[in-house]
């Protein structure tokens, strides 16, 4: 899906391409839709469009723009999947969270929308946790976030609501990592964890072989309810 907007980076030395979906009328709030490792592809654009249909300003930044703008990959194509892993491995997550801050600032200052949520998938699920711990995002949701068990030392910085969707058969987040997440976060007053028994990574993808219809609908409804409660 081609991006249709550019957002200044924090240092003002570049711009972040983004796909922006506008709601009809005044936005009830805004939601940053953060990609998997496959770029702002049609599935991510559909998620943004669906949020706009519910009255939210939806912004899907092109996360890998410093490597190669406009990446759109299909996880069901083995060669493209390998390319996606390469982009993630080369990604600068420190600059990435600065780019999230830049998008938050743009939404609040340039678009005039005060309340901002974040929903991320896979790599974006990890960034959902980072956003909750490192920015002033109003509410965050992570689907099958990777490497969160390695960042539990940051949990004390989480001041606003965070919800994580955890498929128990996740091939990229094993039982030990899931156990660590529960032990570290179950008692956190701002964090809610939902397990999805027997489901695998990518179960809420909009299309393709990874999608699990029932699980995706349940997780997405929980996410809608969560944002309705915390964003309005």
Please give a structural write-up.
There is one protein chain. The protein is an alpha/beta fold. The protein has one domain: Alpha/Beta hydrolase fold, catalytic domain (Rossmann fold, 3-Layer(aba) Sandwich), CATH 3.40.50. It has 6 helices and 8 strands. Helix 5 links the parallel strand 7 and strand 8.
Strand content: 15-25%
Main sheet characteristics:
8 strands, mixed
Residue stretches low in confidence (pLDDT < 50, at least 5 long) are none
CATH class: Alpha Beta
CATH superfamily: Alpha/Beta hydrolase fold, catalytic domain
State the distance separating the first and last CA atoms.
28 Å
Attribute tags:
8 strands; Rossmann fold; alpha/beta; 19% strand; 232 residues; single chain
């Amino acid at each position: 899906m081609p991006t249709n907007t550019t957002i200044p980076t924090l240092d003002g030395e570049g711009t972040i391409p983004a796909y922006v979906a506008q709601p009809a009328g005044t936005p009830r709030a805004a939601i940053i839709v953060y990609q998997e490792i496959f770029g702002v592809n049609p599935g991510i654009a559909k998620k943004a469009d669906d949020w706009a249909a519910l009255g939210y300003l939806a912004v899907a930044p092109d996360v890998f723009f410093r490597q190669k703008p406009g990446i759109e990959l299909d996880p069901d194509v083995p060669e493209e999947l390998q390319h996606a892993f390469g982009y993630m491995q080369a990604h600068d997550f420190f600059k990435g969270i600065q780019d999230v801050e830049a998008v938050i600032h743009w939404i609040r200052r340039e678009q005039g929308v005060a309340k901002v949520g974040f929903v991320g998938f896979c790599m974006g699920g990890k960034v959902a946790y980072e956003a909750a711990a490192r920015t002033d995002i109003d509410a965050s949701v992570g689907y099958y976030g990777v490497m969160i068990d390695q960042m539990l030392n940051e949990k004390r910085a989480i001041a606003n609501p965070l919800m994580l969707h955890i498929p128990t058969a996740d091939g990229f987040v094993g039982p030990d990592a899931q156990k660590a997440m529960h032990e570290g976060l179950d008692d956190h007053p701002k964090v809610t964890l939902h397990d999805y028994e027997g489901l695998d990574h990518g179960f809420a993808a909009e299309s393709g072989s990874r999608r699990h219809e029932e699980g995706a609908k349940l997780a997405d409804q929980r996410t809608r309810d969560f944002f309705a409660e915390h964003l309005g």
